[in-house]
Design a protein that fits this description.
The chain contains 15 helices and no strands. The protein is mostly helical and 291 residues long. Helix 1 packs across helix 3, helix 4 packs antiparallel against helix 6 and helix 8 packs antiparallel against helix 12.
């Protein structure tokens, strides 16, 4: 009965990640079989906490839901998780893999920023948030696969930031629908992009003045972070770290953005996730260890 319940929990996690985070689902799918369920559980945990800022209408409700996950970590690590499929699966993972309760708590606490509708004041603030969420999650995923932070820390930090900034661009249409944009205010001011006017009038088949420049600068930062990650120099690792396949996905999204003049609205019309070409490249990278 317990084994059946645990199997159901991991299936729930895989399904949740497939629905909410297709990119990381595919990265986990290309991991060695022994690690797949563990990665799905970790990514499902991230999906749960990242969804809170999107789904709640009142910050207090969001804070209460984040608090629930922080309070759940102690019993999860003690082997007595609350009766929630993600908590049950995560408890099984922490029993056999290297994960730290404090790191997962920091991941939850960083999501408190999602409850603030105001944009990031600066690119630096955006980078700090990206490191506290995307980079920290990437480090935890690598630890699940037995790769210690000293070996991979800098690569994970830079690649995690690059992935978060790519998501920042891709999320612009969705954020517009919600009536909020989190683009760094200092970049918007630098290029004369009137964020409030954009929220009031919406997208009209072409990007407004300044927004394309903001996106272009973010892309420069993304490429710089990918280069700084040095991921392509990590082939000596004994295990293939499939979470690093995000590098292939970043390249795919940036290539596609270039074909639509960096317009994320046109990007979303053309694709909702990785293309077949991206998947082939990911599979090849996984096979030959070419990140």
């Amino acid at each position: 009965m317990i084994d059946s319940q645990m199997s159901d929990s991991f299936n729930y996690c895989a399904d949740l990640v497939y629905k909410r985070d297709r990119d990381r689902y595919l990265c986990a799918l290309l991991a060695p079989r022994d690690y797949r369920n563990d990665l799905y559980a970790l990514y499902a945990f991230n999906a749960e906490i990242s969804e809170i800022g999107i789904s709640v209408s009142e910050p207090l409700i969001g804070q209460m839901r984040l608090r629930w996950w922080i309070d759940a970590l102690e019993p999860i690590f003690a082997g007595a998780p609350p009766h929630h499929p993600v908590a049950l699966a995560l408890s099984e993972v922490v029993a056999r893999r290297t994960l730290q309760s404090k790191s997962l708590q920091l991941l939850v606490e960083a999501r408190d920023r999602d409850l603030d509708p105001s944009p990031f004041a600066s690119l630096d603030e955006c980078l700090t948030y990206s490191q506290s969420t995307s980079s920290l999650l990437l480090i935890q995923a690598l630890q699940v696969m037995g790769i210690s932070p000293p070996t991979i820390h800098d690569a994970a930090v830079h690649l995690g930031i690059a992935w978060a900034l790519t998501g920042q661009i891709r999320a612009i249409p969705f954020q517009l629908q919600r009536g909020r944009l989190s683009l760094p205010k200092n970049l918007c001011d630098k290029y004369g992009f009137d964020c409030q006017s954009f929220l009031d009038h919406g997208y009209r088949n072409t990007l407004p003045d300044g927004l394309s420049d903001v996106i272009a600068e973010l892309i420069v930062e993304i490429r710089s972070r990918v280069d700084a990650s040095g991921v392509s120099r990590l082939r000596a690792l004994h295990r293939f770290p499939s979470p690093l396949l995000l590098k292939s996905l970043i390249a795919g999204y940036l290539d596609e953005l270039a074909t639509v003049n960096n317009d994320p609205f046109q990007l979303n019309l053309r694709r909702s996730g990785p293309r077949v070409r991206d998947l082939i490249k990911m599979k090849w990278s996984a096979w030959v260890g070419n990140y």
